[in-house]
Specification:
By secondary structure, this protein is mainly alpha-helical. It is 70% helix and 5% strand. Helix 5 packs across helix 6.
Amino acid sequence: MFFYLYAYKAQDAGKGWKNAIVTWYKEFKKSIYFRKLFLLAFVASMILFRTLLNRTLWMNPLSNVMGGWGIWKMVNGEQKLTTECIENVIMMIPFTSIVMWTFREKVCKNWKKILWQSGMISFVFSIVIEMLQLLLRLGTFQLSDIFYNTVGGVVGGFIYYAVMKTRRMFSR
């Protein structure tokens, strides 16, 4: 967020750390858009922490490209419950909802276009995450992760649409 201030409030934030912190605080109090961007940056950093920074190195990141498509996995001949697919869906719901809310002026009001845009945002973000996992050898590249993240993004877009529609209905 300091880089945002250096780009848009360079005359105030570009005069040392103390002025940058004071400018950040004033902008946070004054601007709802800045608070939305801060929340979006926070959620995106939590997703990146979970998917990239909190991982161990893998020798072969392409060892399980198809990934797990269900909630059950066979381990040593025994069926075990796994929540990876549910976690991937849940992880993207707040991200796409906050992206749509932050850039509300640029988002269409049509529910089909909202779902399309949220799906595309989450799909591209998922591709970036999976490619970084592949290139940095952190975790494994999995197509199932891309699918479930995209589903979570569409659900997040639907939740955004439902909240905005309800809000417009009650504001009349």
